Amino acid sequence: MTGVEKRLTELLHSAAPASGAVSVEDVARRVRHRRTVRWSVAGSAATVAAVAVAVSLIGASGGGQSSRLATGPSVDLTGAVPWIDAPAQPYRPPTVSPPAPPATDARPCTADDVAASFAGRDGAGGHLIIDVRFRNTSQSTCVLNGYPHVTATEPGLPDVTGTNGSFFPSAGTANMTPGQDTFLGLETDTYCTARPGGGGGGPPYHHIDIVLPGGGTVSLDRHADGFDVTCGLHLTKFFVPPPEQPQPHDPLSDLQASLETPPSVSAGSTLIYVADLSNPTDQPISLDPCPGYIESASAPTPVKESYALNCAPVGAIAATRTIRFEMRMHIPANTPAGPLTIHWALHAPSVTASATVNVAATPTSAQS
Amino acid sequence: MHEPEGFREFVGARSGALVRSAWLLTGDEAEAEDLVQTALAKTWSRWSGVVRQDAPEAYVRRVMLSTFLTWRRRRWRGELSVAAVPERPDRRDAFAGVDLRPSVQAALRGLPPRQRAVIVLRFFDDLTEAQTADVLGCSVGTVKSQSAKALAKLRECQRLRGTWDEEVGRDGG
To answer: Are A269 and A340 in contact (CB under 8 A)?
Structure first.
């Protein structure tokens, strides 16, 4: 295995989560869902009845419980868009076109146009990079492009010339208006053929001369630590940090959600509730592509399901209007009596709601 | 419909490892669980035959990778980005707190799905080139070329800048 491959293996193992698992019950629900969708596509009344029988036969744990389909008191569903048992489609956030590359057509900066100073440092694995900042102190726009000629010097030691190309990639350059900065990376290394054991400790070079492509020399002194150039001095091209890309706004994120729940639900039954989606803006919000949603509840047998919203009858939510959507959630039979908080989130940024419903105790006589 | 024999033991023993691989493929906890559940659900009805082949995990991985690549082909481009998600059931958050996670996530996302799959199978799941080719249903030569391209991309990735070993820097190892 090469060094890269070893390091990649380390990275993957350190980044991957420490644990995570699924339960057989999760899988069984998924199997039921797949079968329900296939049967629903067949589309006959007998098929629907078969689905009902199959669901009643498949227990979440410990055998069939026909009470899975039993529902407790529900909210008023008048005008609510009916619930559909369909898988959520993957969320696709809006995209933006990448920005045009910055202009680099200004006149080349000379040494008289800029003031230079050392900026940040970075590195790992034996590579160290120190950045030099060049600030345009002239009255006009200019550009630092390509590689400069760099020499590291130290009294009593031979000069070391920088070589083009660094282990560290860098962004592109751009025209620099007065007051703006452009950077250059100077890289030194711990390990090389001249020092196979690594360990540093080479004589430090404290003086750097940088001859700019546009002419003139910028000189810098690094008094504190200097540059250990035993393994050479490697240069990036001049670069400017790429501008931050604005995050595109997803209109779905303007929606506001709230839940209507019945006062109580029996453990082992299906909770029927309503998710209200309100559009507070003055523009319609399209439901194409149709978003999904996640519903969950912190029960001893955790509940977490994702479905598609039933968008077909709606298409879009008009300005200042609210659309009510019927929702269904199975409450596991072992959910203890008392308050249960349910959570709901649209597959869109920040469209969430919660509500609390009282779980009634399951009658002690078995129901079949 | 009855739970297949031995299925629960397999899920208990191996779903954790599958979820970890799925997270590296998808970069998202919920999607990773979704992917593993889908793969296991597809395997459920075939379990008795799968077990007879004596390599159930390889079969599940094949299904998982094939499902992942299919999802990607169906125009999954975005990442589910929800500022506040429904409260997860009470369990230890095993997915937090590793500094490298965002960089590795971003770097893997920059790879095309098939290259990402090769990287995860070869360097996380520790499969050989032949085993990887078997899981992906392609030739060993394809695995080699996809791996080389992916490694080159990862080495250039800004987010992983400075994390590679010193042997990488000069000899292009």
So the answer is: no
Cα separation of A123 and A168, whole Å? 9
Cα distance between residue A343 and residue A354, in whole Å: 4
H/E element, A160 = strand A157-161
**A142 and A176 Cβ atoms separated by less than 8 Å:** yes
The number of CA neighbours under 13 Å toward the Cβ of B135 is 30
At A92-125, the pLDDT tens digits run 777 777 778 889 999 999 999 999 999 877 765 6
Rounded to the nearest 10 degrees, the angle between the axes of helix B113-123 and helix B140-156 is 100
Helix and strand counts by DSSP (H, E) for chain B: 9, 0
- Partner B contacted by A197 (CB < 8 A): no
DSSP state of B83: S
CB contact under 8 A, B33 and A22: yes
In whole angstroms, give the CA distance from residue A114 to residue A109. 7
Residue B92: φ, ψ to 5° = -65, 135
Which residues are paired to A358 by β-bridges?
A: A264, A339
Tokens 């979704």 correspond to B34
A264 close to A357: Cβ distance less than 8 angstroms: yes
Q: Which of A325, A328, A323, A294 lies closest to A310, judged by CA?
A: A325
To the nearest whole number, what is the mean pLDDT of chain B?
Answer: 75
Print the SS3 string covering A45-57: HHHHHHHHHHHHH
- Cα A189 to its chain centre, rounded Å, is 33
For residue A124, the tally of other CB atoms under 10 A from its CB is 13
Amino acid at B35: L
What count of residues does chain B have?
173
d(CA B111, CA B124): 15
Scanning A57-116 for CB atoms below 8 A from B yields: 57-58, 90-93, 95
Give the pLDDT confidence of A152-162 residue by residue, as tens digits: 999 999 999 99
Looking at residue A168, its amino acid is F
Q: How far apart are CA B164 and CA A127, in angstroms?
A: 9
Check CB contact under 8 Å for B87 and A30: no
SS3 content of chain A, % helix, strand, coil (to 5): 15, 35, 50
Q: What is residue B89's DSSP assignment? A: P
pTM over 0.80: no
**Distance (Å, whole) CA A33 – CA A51:** 10
Check CB contact under 8 Å for A20 and B95. yes
pLDDT at A83: 93
Residues of chain B contacting residue A54, judged by C-beta atoms under 8 Å apart? 1
* Residue contact A8–B123, C-beta within 8 A: yes
- CA pseudo-torsion sign A331, A336, A337, A342: negative
Whether A286 contacts A269, CB under 8 Å = no
